[in-house]
Design goal:
Layout: E1 10-13, H1 17-28, E2 34-37, H2 46-49, H3 81-94, E3 101-102, E4 107-113, E5 118-123, E6 128-131, E7 133-136, E8 150-151, E9 158-161, E10 175-179, H4 183-193, E11 198-202, E12 209-211, H5 219-227, H6 229-245, H7 255-271, H8 275-280, E13 293-295, H9 298-302, E14 307-310, E15 314-318, E16 321-324, E17 329-331, E18 334-337, E19 351-353, H10 360-363, E20 382-384, E21 391-392, H11 397-418, E22 424-425, H12 427-441, E23 464-465, H13 469-476, E24 484-485, H14 499-503
Parallel strand pairs: 1-2, 1-7, 2-3, 4-19, 7-20, 8-15, 9-18, 10-11, 10-18, 11-14, 12-13, 21-23
Antiparallel strand pairs: 4-5, 5-6, 15-16, 16-17, 22-24
C-alpha cells in the first residue's frame, strides 16, 4: 500500500533572490503552504538593504537574473541597484508570491521540536510559527562588519556603514573618509568624489582592480531581446560559458590568473601616472585571493586633486577627526565604512537549535559546513540557500541559488511521494563531501598568504565553491536519497553520529 502524502508546510527565512526562487519553484511544484519571512518592508534582500551611491552588480545583468525569467529590458551591461531591485520585485508579483510574504518580520530563532517533528520559528516580537520544513535564505551579505575604531572622543560627525545608507546625509562640500578597498569602495568613491570637498580613501591594503567596460544596451539590442526570445537565451548562454571559462582564475599561478593580473597591472599603469601612488595601489597579495573588483572609474577617482589615498588603517575617532594606525590625523565630517560583511559567520543573527538541543553556532565553532551548502547532520528538515562553500569563484550566484532551490524542491517532492515527514543528511555523506571540498580547495589562490572574508578563524575556507558552477549543477541535478535518512534517531537502525566530529574527522 502506498503511503498517503500529507501537505507539507515550509518556512523560508529571507525574501532575497534565493528565497524568491524557492517560492517560485514551490508554487510550480504544487506546494501552497509556505511563508517567506523578511525583516525588511519588501523583497529583494541585499538589493533592498543596500542603496549607497554607485551600487551596481559586478555580474552582467543578463546573467544576474533567473534562467526562467530573462529580462529583455536591462538598460546596461551591468545594471544598478534600482533596476535590479525592480526586477526581483516584478518577479515576486509575476509569480504571485504576495500572499506568501510576511514582511517586516525578523526571525531570531529556529528550534526543532522532535516530539511534534516541526520547527518553531520565533520572531523579534515574540510571535511563533511552526513549520514542517525550514529553509534559511538569508545569504552571505546581511551582517555589516564594522571596523574596530576606538572613539577617543565623542565623534560629532556622521559615522555610517554603507549597508545602512542614510540618504538625508548631504555629502556636498564635506570632508569624507571612506574606509575599505573592496567592491563597495570602488563603486562609492567616484560618486562621493563628485560631491565632497575632500575625500580620503583609507586602505588597510590595496586590491586588484579589473576594468568594467560598462555601457548602455542599444535600442536595436533591446528590440532583439524583446522580439526574439531565443536571442536573449543565446546571449545569456554565451555569458555563462564565458564565465565558466574563467574558472582558472581561482587556481594559484594558473595561466588565467596571470592573464587577469596582467590586465589589472596594465590598467593601473595607464590610469595612475604618479609612480608613488601607483606603487601604493599595487597589491602585494596573490591575484584572486580576495574578491575580484571590477570598476569603471575607481582608479581615475583616486587620481583627482581632492582625493587622497591613505595607506594606513583607521584606528581612532576624535570629535572631528579620524586617526590612522601610523598616527596621521584626518579632519573629517563624515566617515563611511565600506568594510563589507561578516560573511563567514553564517546565520550569526539567528539562533538555530536542532536535535538533542544542539546549537548550530556551536556545531560550527570551527567553521561552517553543510552538505552541498544546504544541509547539516543533526538538523533535520532544515536547509540553506547560499550556505557554506557555495560562493562561486566565477559565474553568477543566481545560477547556484536556482540549482539549490530546485534540489530542495526535489527533496520535498521525494518526501511527498514516499509519505515521509523527516529528512536529515547522513554524517558519513557530510564527511565525504567535506573531504572532497578540502581536496578541491588545495591549489586554489584562497589558501595563499591572504586575509579575506572567505576563511573561518581556523583558516578553513568556508564561503567559496572550489569548482565551476557546472560541477555544482551536476552534483545537484538529482536528489540523492541514499545520502539522507528519513527516520528520526529513535527509529533509526544505525547509531547516532555527532555531526561536528563526522564533518571534521
Amino acid at each position: 500500500m502506498m503511503p498517503v502524502a500529507k501537505s507539507v508546510s515550509v518556512g523560508v527565512i529571507g525574501a532575497g533572490p534565493g528565497g524568491l526562487a524557492l517560492g517560485i519553484f514551490l508554487r510550480k511544484a504544487g506546494f501552497r503552504d509556505f511563508t517567506i519571512f523578511d525583516r525588511e518592508d519588501g523583497v529583494g534582500g541585499t538589493w533592498r538593504i543596500n542603496t549607497y551611491p554607485g551600487l551596481a552588480c559586478d555580474v552582467k545583468s543578463h546573467l544576474y537574473s533567473y534562467s526562467f525569467d530573462l529580462n529583455a529590458n536591462w538598460s546596461r551591461l551591468w545594471s544598478g541597484q534600482p533596476e535590479i531591485l525592480e526586477y526581483f520585485e516584478r518577479c515576486a508579483d509575476a509569480y504571485r508570491l504576495g500572499p506568501h510574504l510576511k514582511l517586516n518580520t525578523e526571525i531570531i530563532s529556529a528550534r526543532w521540536d522532535a516530539d511534534a517533528a516541526k520547527w518553531q520559528l520565533t520572531t523579534k516580537t515574540g510571535q511563533r510559527h511552526a513549520f514542517d520544513i525550514v529553509v534559511s535564505a538569508v545569504g552571505l551579505f546581511t551582517q555589516p562588519a564594522l571596523p574596530d575604531l576606538v572613539e577617543e572622543e565623542p565623534f560629532t560627525g556622521t559615522l555610517m556603514h554603507t549597508a545602512r545608507w542614510d540618504h538625508s546625509v548631504d555629502l556636498r562640500d564635506k570632508r569624507v573618509a571612506v574606509l575599505g578597498t573592496g567592491s563597495t569602495a570602488a563603486q562609492l568613491i567616484p560618486e562621493v568624489a563628485k560631491l565632497a570637498q575632500k575625500v580620503y580613501s583609507v586602505q588597510r591594503s590595496p586590491t586588484w582592480i579589473l576594468p568594467k567596460p560598462d555601457r548602455a544596451y542599444t535600442e536595436r539590442e533591446k528590440w532583439l531581446f524583446a522580439r526574439i526570445p531565443f536571442a536573449k537565451k543565446l546571449y545569456r548562454t554565451r555569458l555563462w560559458l564565458r564565465s565558466e571559462s574563467n574558472i582558472g582564475v581561482i587556481e594559484n599561478g594558473s595561466e588565467k590568473t596571470q592573464e587577469f593580473k596582467g590586465i589589472a597591472l596594465r590598467q593601473l599603469q595607464a590610469t595612475v601616472a604618479d609612480e608613488e601612488l601607483r606603487s601604493r595601489l599595487t597589491p602585494d597579495h596573490p591575484f584572486g585571493c580576495k574578491r575580484l573588483v571590477f570598476a569603471t572609474d575607481y582608479l581615475q577617482a583616486l587620481t583627482k586633486p581632492h582625493v587622497e589615498v591613505i595607506s594606513s588603517p583607521a584606528r581612532y575617532l576624535r570629535s572631528r577627526s579620524l586617526v590612522t594606525e601610523d598616527g596621521a590625523e584626518l579632519d573629517v565630517d563624515i566617515v563611511l565604512c565600506a568594510t563589507g560583511y561578516a560573511a563567514a559567520d553564517y546565520l550569526g543573527q539567528i539562533d538555530v537549535v536542532g536535535e538533542d538541543g544542539a546549537s548550530l553556532h556551536e556545531t560550527w565553532s570551527d567553521g561552517a559546513y553543510a552538505y552541498l551548502g544546504m544541509a547539516v547532520p543533526g538538523f533535520p528538515n532544515f536547509f540553506m540557500l547560499y550556505g557554506p562553500n557555495t560562493n562561486v569563484g566565477s559565474n553568477s550566484v543566481i545560477f547556484m541559488l536556482e540549482a539549490q532551490a530546485r534540489y530542495i524542491v526535489r527533496t520535498l517532492k521525494h518526501m511527498r511521494r514516499k509519505g515521509k515527514s523527516y529528512v536529515a543528511v547522513r554524517p558519513d555523506a557530510m564527511a565525504t563531501f567535506i573531504a572532497k571540498i578540502d581536496e578541491w580547495m588545495e591549489g586554489t589562490v584562497w589558501l595563499t598568504r591572504c586575509s579575506n572574508y572567505f576563511r573561518a578563524a581556523n583558516g578553513r575556507v568556508v564561503t567559496q565553491w572550489p569548482r565551476s558552477a557546472r560541477v555544482f549543477w551536476w552534483m545537484t541535478r538529482r536528489f540523492t536519497a541514499p545520502d539522507y535518512t528519513f527516520d528520526p534517531p529513535s527509529q533509526s537502525t544505525g547509531p547516532h553520529v555527532d555531526a561536528r566530529s563526522a564533518a571534521n574527522r
